[in-house]
Amino acid sequence: MSKIRDFKLEGLVPAVFTPMTTDGAIDYDKIDAYSRYLSDLGVKQVFLNGTTGEGFSLTLDERKKIVETWVRVGKESGRIRDIVVHVGSLNMHDSQELAKHAAVAGVDAIATVPPLFFKPSKLEYIVEYCKKIAEAAPNVPFYYYHIPTMTGVEVNIEDFLVMASKEIPSLVGAKFSSKDLVDFLGCTQLTAPNRSDSKYNLMFGCDEQLMAAMVMGGHGSVGSTPNLMWGTMARVLQLTAQGNFPEARKEQLRCQKTVRIMLKYGPQLGGNVAALKAILALVGMDTGPPRAPMRAPSAEEARAIKADLNAIGFFNWDNQPATNLASQPATNLASQPATNHRRKTAR
């Protein structure tokens, strides 16, 4: 139980994309290059098979093989220290199977969304559902994945943590992908009975509000934008921790401008992940197209995305060689000097 008491996500934790070929098959071989790309940025912790990873568009076997591949090329190579796996699915038994597999594979934590087709009418139903999934991997730290814009399940996470802490011994925190900062602040004030520091590990998932979440006591970000703009998002954390709010706001605004471009093109591509994958390719890490019902942008759409990014100065924000940010663990980002960083960019 010591790992459950002490395990912690912190700093920038990319929610990783799932590499795919042009025919929609998983490109497992690309994961090696992707893990190297992230390691070169300074990434030490990753989140697999979530929204960014298109987890609900994958088969069980694909999700398992993705986990096994990341463990091999990420953890066993020493590039990635901690791997968190989303095991949520449309039925509890598949989630339990994925949780058991994750534990055997050697991941460091698991997470799940709530039931999202037959939506629970009471909070205790969600707690019971999560309890049964967590029990499938009782020695693995467990996170609740709160993303109501995708699941349609609106629940107060402060209340969930209070109730779930009595039923789920492996509960360590939440991936909070909601803009309800009132609820988030309440979560930061709770006492966690099974944690060494008595605090729930709270990772924010709406990158465009990260600065505010950190001021309220969040521990970092599990989101997609660190894949695309690591230096910018790292400076949001660093400058906020230093109390340099004017400069932190400038970096946060850069994230918001990028997210607005994602929101501009995402709907016409079937989902925001499609736009994000296109942007990631422009900064040097091509993970291929998304899976249906999303689609890759046409050549014309790709040029438009690139033009919009150029218009906001995106390719000039993080264009310096890897220095401090790339060499420091994700957990120490807040204490490092604000330094530019970007791998090779496309113009």
Automatic annotation (TrEMBL):
Q: What is its main location?
A: cytoplasm
Q: Where along the chain is pyruvate bound?
A: T52, V222
The record's InterPro entries line, in alphabetical order, gives:
Aldolase_TIM (IPR013785), DapA-like (IPR002220)
Q: Name one Pfam family in it.
A: DHDPS
Residue stretches of biased makeup (Polar residues): 325-339
Catalytic activity from the UniProt record: aceneuramate = aldehydo-N-acetyl-D-mannosamine + pyruvate
Q: Where is this region: Disordered?
A: 325-347
EC number(s) of the enzyme?
4.1.3.3
Parts of the chain that traverse the membrane: none
Tell me the active site.
Answer: Y145, K175
The answer on whether this UniProt entry bears the keyword Lyase reads yes
Output the Gene3D superfamilies linked to this UniProt entry: Aldolase class I
Localization per record = Cytoplasm
Which enzyme type, at the first EC level? lyase
Q: Which keywords has UniProt assigned to this entry? A: Carbohydrate metabolism, Cytoplasm, Lyase, Schiff base
| Gene Ontology cellular component terms for the protein in this record | cytoplasm
Q: In which pathway does it act?
A: Amino-sugar metabolism; N-acetylneuraminate degradation
GO MF entries: N-acetylneuraminate lyase activity
Q: How the protein assembles, per its UniProt entry?
A: Homotetramer.
Q: Which family does it belong to?
A: Belongs to the DapA family. NanA subfamily.
Please identify the protein, giving its name as recorded: N-acetylneuraminate lyase
